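Field reference: "sequence" (input) and "structure" (output). Example, Knr4/Smi1-like domain-containing protein:
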Amino acid sequence: MWIDQLLSAVRWQPLDLPMNWARVEGELGVALPSDYKRLCESFGPGEFSEYLDVFCVNEGPGPDILKQWRACVDAAADREVPERPHPLFAPYQIFERDRPAGLIPWGVTQTECEFHWLADSGDPDKWPIFARFTDSDWDHFDISTGEFVVRVLTDREFRPYSVAGIFPEPYFQPLPQLPGSA
């Protein structure tokens, strides 16, 4: 439902791209939300309204969910004390197989907002979203990834994350394909 609203809002025809979810979910050690996967398959890598990047599977340069998650794992490992969360992610930790729960990054904005799921072994379609501007407190949302993206792009009341007042006609810009890729 929310992905259909997103497709309509940005006037985009779904691409039905193949994504290697088995590889991604195998490395993460957990399944990902179904609407997020449909979003990625429908749009592929790119940017919404020159503002929001959703980390999809991207074999080329640019944002990719595994690259972003690995960067967070590496950042946390550099300074993390096992019994305390890393200050970059506190009070949460980054999701890893040996933890019951943790953050998985799925998006970022041009204004340094970051979006994560608080992942666990339960139903990924019920994972909450945690969002914040860099160095701010986390905001908690019990909504799907698709709903979150739609509200960022179209709901002026979805503060402080909405860009509906800045970009009244949201759009999607795919990442350019490099020669020899596709």
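Residues 2-172 form one domain.
The CA atoms of residues 91 and 144 lie 22 Å apart.
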